[in-house]
Design goal:
By secondary structure, the protein is an all-alpha fold. It contains 27 helices and no strands. The longest helix has 18 residues. This is Adaptor related protein complex 3 subunit beta 2.
Amino acid sequence: HDDLKEMLDSNKDSLKLEAMKRIVAMIARGKNASDLFPAVVKNVACKNIEDPNQLIRASALRVLSSIRVPIIVPIMMLAIKEAASDMSPYVRKTAAHAIPKLYSLDSDQKDQLIEVIEKLLADKTTLVAGSVVMAFEEVCPERIDLIHKNYRKLCNLLIDVEEWGQVVIINMLTRYARTQFLSPNQNESLLEESAEKAFYGSEEEDAKDAKAEVASLAKRKPYVMDPDHRLLLRNTKPLLQSRNAAVVMAVAQLYFHLAPKAEVGVIAKALVRLLRSHSEVQYVVLQNVATMSIKRRGMFEPYLKSFYIRSTDPTQIKILKLEVLTNLANETNISTILREFQTYIRSMDKDFVAATIQAIGRCATNIGKVRDTCLNGLVQLLSNRDELVVAESVVVIKKLLQMQPAQHSEIIKHMAKLTDNIQVPMARASILWLIGEYCEHVPKIAPDVLRKMAKSFTNEEDIVKLQVINLAAKLYLTNSKQV
């Protein structure tokens, strides 16, 4: 490393900068640079932190904070405090970056570091904002009190901060606002709960309580939004147009948690726009949409077609889109969605076909009026050539029949015939369970199935064996003469 030592000792800024860069690169690659320690510290500790060139001051601090040696913690602490009051915002930003590094090296410095964070949070430049909030989140996220006096400034700076800083600040402000402001939808969710109690409360008392509750809620003061809460919503809204998907996603989460129900809709359009980007981004967005669409179905309904599946989508994206479509299904759009599902079943992607069959089952469970249509569709799938399709259909039909068994002895008979050729253990087990559970509906067929299964018993998987024993016990209880 002699050449690097010479460069560090030279009088030229450019050589020193180059040497610092090389050392940071060496450390990043995991090489041992400890013998350069004196040369660097000499440079950093004395004149370089006072160097007229801001890039040298900053890179000196960067190198110093990259040296993971506990012995220099006091020097590092001094350098960070110096840099935090530097006139150059770039150096102050570097100081903010050094804070989490020092904290991870020696967590006993927390109190001193919090003082520096407090000082840097008061900084009015956009360059420092994102970095100091990141340091705050790493070192002392519980000290919400440090944010109070800087809250409005952070809201106003937000639009001009660099993208990754925006993500960090938005996430922190979401956390802040959820703990410091009233929920704009509080009254509404309480009303829903009370109405539910009034509807389900069978005992007179319950119903009276619930009605009284609804009445008292109606008397409550109408919700008025805190101006600071409004400021946050107003200043983050334009960022839904950001070219950075992470920023859009962060604003969407903020709106989901903090906006009044009537205003949340704006995020749907922005999230649907993100579905045009790479599959990795799509995956993250769809996971969030799947969660959001459970609670706020209405806002994604106008974009139903955006969640239709393309044959080029990777399997995990297809499966997430299915989940969203199933969440959005209601009495008005269910026929469109089921038609769409019918085309998916012909796909070559077997995992996806299985997920589609489960989705049909979920729609049938949630929307009573299409239950029979779905059941008939699934029964038709039982004659499919593909064993996996048949097996998945059997498992879903089993769930649907549990809701209304009496009308369906035909389906159960049809399924009993399948035991000869379906080999998938879960499907065999489901058929046997159905025959056992509803053996009164198929008194002629059930004993026959048991006889066949007894022959192949030793070769079956465990879940199938258990259901054979289960079937035998149920038949013995209901039809002991014949069995």
